[in-house]
Structure prediction request, 596 residues.
Amino acid sequence: MRVDKSGEPNQIAIKMDVDIHQNPIHKEIMAGKYLGYYLIYNRRSTDEPDSQKNSIQYQKLENTKFARREKLSIAPTTLAGFCLDGMISEKHSGFKEDDEIIITKDGMVQYRIERPKFQRLVHYLSLNLFKGVICLCWDRISRNKGDDTILRKLMRKGIDVRFVFAHYEKTSSGALHMDIDGMFAEHHSRVTSEKVRLTTWNLRERGIVTYKAPVGYLNKGDVQHKPFDPVRAPIIKKMFELYATGDWSLTDLVRFANNQGLTTSPSRRRRTESEMLAEEGEESKIEPVARPIILSHVQKILTNPFYTGRMIGNDKRYARSISHEPLISDDLFNAVQVRLAKKKVSIHYTEKLELFYRGFVRCADCGRVYTPYTQKEMQYFGARCKNGCPNSKKSFSIQWLERKTMEIMELLVFTKDEQIRLDAEISTNLSVFEEKRLEKLDLNDRRKRKLREDLAYLWANKIHLLKSGVYAPEALVHEENRLNRELISLQSDEQVSDISMQAIAEELQKLSELLKSGLVYYEYGKSLDREQVVRLIFSELSVSDKTFQYQCKKGFQVLKSRLYPNCSLTTWISESLALESEIKGSLEELRSAMKN
Prediction:
């Protein structure tokens, strides 16, 4: 958990209600009004609902007795959604923890605490706004290693964490006692979870339904018996029979179901955050509500094999159930599936529409793809941009796109002035460049010989170096890997240096000339041929009402990079040496495309 300099928790580590910062009680706490007071933390576990020790009332009684006996002052404060008269009561599993972790740039490791009231408790304690906290025993406040770590950090920080049923001395024996209690608390939850999973697996293996039955059956809390709903089951069966005739649509069945008074099985809505944080005795009862049938309900009903007397087994396949009787026959269910399948008809054109540049052009502002479409035998591109996208260019024609693309391709080709300057630059700096290149090759060669000698020495004297303690085994391996990496790097540099400035300049000139010839091919070709050329040169095009952006593939990216401001020809050609293979590859692809 992390707290910033303002005293407020990091938004990743603590998830708090924004309104609480305006609460006067919260402001009193942040002002340090309760520095000498304790809080009491009670938690009812979802693992042991019938245990007396798990009762909130029992914990309140024992924790209060302990506070009086030890003469510990409980904070006289009530903060909605957190505590009542200094008592925190939470109904949440202490075993669950979030698997997500975040490592910040400064090396801070963060993770989210699952229990909302425990989150706030940790936040206040980390700021030393209370003297400490009282709880029944270790497994009431934590049952996972992540929260254990936070508690131990708070205790090392000086926070007084008291336990009614345990006392941990500040010795190695006390630390061991704490470790054992934490280990057994987590182990208990693991065992309980394992028993639940095993029981569920065994029940499903026997054909017993371990989940809620759909509408048409009653859920009475007995997994071994899911009886028919006497009101809804006949209507469900009639819906299958009507649809199997082929005369009824899904919309007709929705209307029929509502006319018959069919509703979903009564269910309770999810509790709101305020309801989850309510104190014991303040909980509002959530009544189950039955909702009217809509189209999605009908679709789920007609495709659910549960109505044929089957259930989802351990292998995620449907198997025969001994918990409920089939409402319809297999033949009727299969007939309905055949009818439903006929409704899912895809339109296949006898002649596929030639829509070019599909998935290739995007909105420069929101990134949405422009989708090609035809109108009056002309191809256009349209985009459904995200809400708030400033791009007003929602559509354009293929002619506009190809004209803009041709303008970009013309920019990539060397002009006559550039060609003259390029030739002059090469002839002027060729000797200087060659001298530097050869000097670098000579330095590399000497360094490679030294690296090979060092490696040979390590290999020949490995045992002696280890026995004499000159190198530890890990250090020896590290040194060997370092020398090998440097040797490989020098070999790569040498391969680049073997390419002369003259050679790379000639390749670039060939690529430019071929692209210039391709412009004629592009201008008089069809959209199919143009698309092939465009996809060879560009990886993506982006359009907005103000800009036309493009990303070139690596070989053509070299031609684009010379257009950058303040780019000298010498520097540009030197940097192009490392992309010699990409330039040759682009040259061959473009030549092949033009031949075909």
In short: The longest strand covers residues 38-44. The mean pLDDT is 80.
